[in-house]
Amino acid sequence: MPEEPPPPVHIAVIMDGNGRWAKERGLPRREGHRAGAESVRRCVEACKELGVRYLTLYAFSSENWNRPPAEITALMTLLERFLEQKAEEMMRQNVRLQAIGHLERLPDKTRRKLEAAIERTAANDSLTLVLALSYGSREEITEAARSLVREAAAGRLGPDEVTPERLAGYLYTAGIPDPDLLIRTSGEMRLSNFLLWQISYAELVIFKKFWPDFGESDLFEAVGEYSRRHRRFGGL
Ligand code: FPP
Question: 71 C-alpha to center of ligand 1: Å?
Answer without folding.
Answer: 10
